[in-house]
Amino acid sequence: MTYLIKTCFLILITFFYSVTAFSYGLNPFEAKGQDNQQSISLYKYAEIANVGNSSFTFDEFLAKENTLKFEPINGPSTNLGFTENKYWLRFRIQNLTEFPLQYYLETGRPVTDLVDLYLITDGEAVKKFKNGDLIPFSEKSFAHRKVIFPLQLNPGKTYRVYIHYISDGEVINLPLELHSPTSMILSAYQNQLFHGVFYGILLLAGAVYLLFYFGIGEKSFLLYSVYVLSVGLLHMSLDGYFFQYIDPASGWLNKNAILITATLSAMAFGRYAQIYTNIKQWSKGLNNSLNILLIALLVLITFVLLYPGGKAYYYPAVNLISFLLLMILICTVLFGYIKGREIDVFFSVAIFSFTVGFFILIFNNFSLIPNSFFTENGSKIGTGFEIIFLSLAMSNRIKLLKSEKEKHQEIALQKSEESNEIKSYFLSNISHELRTPLNAIIGLTQSIKETNKIDTINTDLDVIHYSSLGLLGAIDDVLDYSKIEKGQLKLQETAFDLRKMISQIAHSYTTQAKDKGLKFDYQEIGIIPQLIIGDKRRTEQLIGNLLKNAIKFTQQGGIQLKVEALAQKENQCLLKIQVKDSGVGIKKQKLESIFASFTQGQNNDKRKFGGLGLGLCIVKALVNLHQGKINIQSEEGIGTLVTLELTYALPETGEQTDPYDFAKEGVFDLENKHILIVEDNALNQMVLKVILGKWSNTSFKIANNGLEAVEMLKTQTFDVVLMDLQMPVMDGYEATQAIRSGASGTNNSNIPIIAVTADVTQKARNKVFEIGMDDYMTKPVKKEEIYNKIKKVLFLKEIQIHEKTV
């Protein structure tokens, strides 16, 4: 009888346990929309089961689900610590709306080995999503460095969500962040900013002090650079960038990246600190302890390389050795102060910063502190400050070495200063090297087209011309984007012929649209003023970028350009420009970010349509410079309407035309003027020969560099100098300064000089006028522009001569 009672009692306990295991003790998350701008944590709606080393298929798991012990999640980002165990997590989510909802679920760490998600609801097949860094990146269900799953929820449906976590001994974190498309983008922006600053500091510090090493030859600089770069690679591994960009096939390197980079960074930092503090000279005990730990790290990395099966032990081991290493370094700093050693204060602060970040990382890995944004990124914050203060300490070390290595120090400091100009030099050089051949291509094709009468050849020339202009536009976009980043984009306001400019734009894009099989409709509403005051190039760029986008994203139908000018107070006019297309349109959720750099309307637009994704970013910046307005209305699959409003000043009453538009009549006559062309490139010489050779009463000679020009001016008479800037022997800047100082004779010190250059940077423009040039123009050379420039400087010189004689 007693046995029967015990048996019944056990059956009753089993029954209640089974009911508890089968039924969810937590309510489903109720999804009511996808407009939230912040992610939602689902930890309150989820529970997790530790199944140890048991490997279940999903069907086997469902069969055993009622027998597993599920427990609630402790917090918004629970840390399971170092583990080889497998876990199953579950929760429910219900779509209470009448329309489908799109969410993105973020869970696990980027370095979690395998994470599988199963989505179940009545009337639909089970959906399986794969993620983790043990599968090739291309096989992830969502192409992102993090563990993110797309969830498509149908109206009125309740879904059961199961997630399976597998790790080889690494830490498993359990963020359950549900993102709307908007919050997903905002979260990405936040991460990009934070990671951009962090990795930027590491890259800059590593690169700069690597340059110092080559300049000074001090070993501590090399070890410091290796440490910084290895720390960068370690964090890239932890953040998933290593997997995404370096080893997307998830090979051996990706699987061992964390252990290798963590061990290397600890070894590099220990050895660097050993040399920097010169601990061997004043504490053999600490030095020997440090050597033992460095040997332990060497043994550890050997095991990692030769025996990868012990990762469950390697991860805690590298953290433990790094902790002991840090303790020795702290003791080194303290004993140094006690013994009166000169320990750099920045080095001490750096060790303190590293200690704080390291303890946060270790305590978080061992689940001793709760997870949060600060604790998850505490190591980055500590490391960032550590690198900054170590960099300051290294700068102090340079001062200490100055007496012994003064010559090398000067070289290193010079390189440091030059590193700030690298980007400017690169942009200047790339502009010059690309614009030089483009100048020849565009100039010669235009010249050939003017004399050729065969339509088929002219069609081919148009293709070359538009392709060259496309490449030139891409170069300009990159340069303009750099100026936007630095806040150096400026407007150059002059009077220009608005009607002529818009007519030329309409004609050009009519041809491009026709070549693509599209209709192009241009309408002028009301009276368009002929002359306005503004930046012609930027206005043309604004309209051109909008039309270029319209043609690029339209496969059938047509493009419409409307221009309207409305009179305003104080001698101003409001220019309204509308560009309408029947193209692919823009998704509603993309409209908010359409002006961001490297952004296009669809995720795959860069593959389908090409382009850098900078056009609208530059348009927005130019509109802001004009203090104008831009509005985009678009419907996916229907088309896009862009409305642009810009305010321009009008010239004084009675001034109807550009006084310096000498080429408007189509007659090119310099009235027996003699031009000196200073140009080293043979192709550019040929372009200028072709252009000037067709003008009436015009003669010219060519100097291959600035020195030749200075000498030729001594013996020959010229009226105008067309000066390239980047040349061998003597560049255009040096030649101009020599001419202005009287090196070619006092009679030539005021000769009009026009810069004709491929360097479009603001720095070059400013320097041209600072040294006394009269005007500036960029390649590719347009015959109308160069004719107007020459006539203008000659006209202004005549006025100056007349004023002196009166």
Description:
By secondary structure, this protein is α+β, with helices and mostly antiparallel strands. 50% of the residues lie in helices and 19% in strands. The strands form 6 sheets. Strands 1, 3, 4, 6, 8, 9 and 11 form a 7-stranded mixed sheet that branches. Strands 15-17-18-20-19 form a 5-stranded mixed sheet, covered by helices on one side. Helix 20 (732-740) links the parallel strand 23 and strand 24 (753-757). Helix 3 (181-216) packs antiparallel against helix 11, helix 7 runs antiparallel to helix 8 and helix 9 packs antiparallel against helix 10. The radius of gyration is 35 Å and the shape is flat.
Question: Which features does this protein show?
Answer:
806 residues, alpha+beta, seven-stranded mixed beta sheet, five-stranded mixed beta sheet, 22 helices, 19% strand, disordered N terminus
Structure summary:
The protein has 806 residues and is of the alpha+beta class. The protein is built from 22 helices and 25 strands.
Which structural class should the secondary elements be placed in?
alpha+beta
Radius of gyration: 35 Å
Mean pLDDT over all positions = 81
Which residue ranges are poorly predicted, with pLDDT under 50 across at least 5 consecutive positions? 1-23, 601-607
Measured by DSSP, the beta-strand proportion falls in 15-25%
Query: Helical content, roughly?
Result: 40-55%
Largest sheet features: 7 strands, mixed
Q: First CA to last CA: what distance?
A: 136 Å
3D shape? flat
Per DSSP E runs of 2 or more residues, the count of β-strands stands at 25
Question: How many distinct helices?
Answer: 22
